[in-house]
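User: Fold this; tokens only.

Assistant: Input:
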Amino acid sequence: MAEELKSEEQFDQLVESIKTPPSALPADQLLPIFVPADFFELDNWPGPYHLCKASGLGQTWVILQPKETMLYLNWAIQEYWESQGFDWVQLAKDNLARLSEKNQYTHEFRRDDGQLYAVALMQDDALGPSRLLLGDYFSGLFPQGYDVALPEMSCGIVIAKDITKKEREKIADIVDHCYHNGTRPLIPGIHEATDIYSQ
């Protein structure tokens, strides 16, 4: 019953968000988000997006809203912000960096000697994979280089390049499990860090 009430409240919030004029939407809540590329297959997506180098992966933008909801950035909002002189792409990156200052990742994978070899990004805001765009941070964490995985829309993983075969197999099993059993699968496998950027 409580879950049904929450869903109803979230639906009402989405309706309210859609009706909100662009001038009243909080630009400081604009963030990038990764989605399955097939979201865009019919070419009727209501706002800006791009396809990433990784097969099946796309990126667009959302505005966080009350009651754990989000509104996808549409053409009308984009047009309004640009008319106001907003560099909304940079703003979204800045918002992501600010949101992630103390929350870049949620889980660690360490060797017996304590050395970090992978981290998972499963934040409560469901934008874990978006934080993969914080490349400078993860380059500092893994200066030897790193790969990424985005098995589920709320789960990202960063993996050091110099991991052992056994460690890579462990991470690959986790990625496979998340992709096949998650509620919102994104893309399978482990990828080069640059594969999350546009084609």
